[in-house]
Amino acid sequence: MKKVLFISNHAGFSKFNAPYMQYFHEQGWQVDNASPGIETGYFDNQYDVPIKRNPFSFSNFKALRMLKKICKDNQYDIIHCHTPVGGVLGRMVGHVCKKTKVIYTAHGFHFYKGSSLIDWLLWYPIEKHFSKKTDCIVTINHEDYELAKKKFKTDVRYISGVGVNINRFKPCDKNTKDELRKEYGFSKDDFILVYCAQFIPRKNHKFFMSLVDDLKEKIPNLKIIFVGNGKLEANFKKQVSKNNQENFISFMGYRKDVEKLYQISDLLISTSFQEGFGINIVEGMATGLPVICSDIRGHNEIVKKGENGYRISLSLPNEYINKILLLCTDKNLYNSICENNIRDAKKFDVEHSVSQMAEIYKDYF
Questions:
Q1: % of the chain with per-residue pLDDT over 90
Q2: Closest to 263 measured CA to CA, from 350, 186, 359
Q3: Residue 290 and residue 269: Cα distance in Å, rounded?
């Protein structure tokens, strides 16, 4: 029986890999997963390996020893590693299995146009060195693809994102939307903005929070929904309480019903500094939401200005406000963008991503 091992340094990352794991199962492979914590999914064995995001954490030395033993015991045909540190460790242990092919999916290099000098000095040499130990690097945006093709001497491929289950994220009619709003404690007349992202620095909630007072003044029926958790969540909750904004800002935490939260919303917002690929944007688009997001790599793969939303420089906060107001008041433009988004989201459907990835896998087994 052929065997494949998925590696990442992110607990819960298997939910992104689930369609690809399912693909291997359908081909009759043994599918194993190595990541921090205990997970469930389309795999035969889950290895709880203490991989940390910080590349200098001593825990990663223990993780490396564990991965070497796992690989030695199983002799995998393919190791498919994800995330920066998971990618490094996966490629460090690849040589343990004599016949193993190592595939690394870069979910957005930390070095890119506009990133800090520190990121270039740290991550570029690491990725360049380990590219020599990689049979195939898979990129999910064109900027990373072009950079990798130019800088790394290995097989570099491109797929259109990691895939979104379009069947899960669907628009709903007005009556259903009104009923859902009532269920979640919102009015049918509210104008709801949703931002679905972890509360971590690169998601840049701080920028969005700086806009809310001006927005509330101009849109009296404004409501804002934050979906997600993270280390900065408590600080933002305190800020909202201090500014008496609880009546129009809701923290929904980590949710398994995010598709319904998109359905009750009117606009999807993202103010990230950095993205490899904006999964939340595609999910919102598939639900029919116009998008207003930062003009960065990973967003420009998806959002075409004026067609399915607007990409705006983070140096132009007033432009964010103006575009939100525009879509709040211009119903013809709003409806046109909604229709475009439902159409455009289909090109990022998970079935398409699995099909693209399957063609890559076939070249390595």
A1: 84
A2: 186
A3: 9
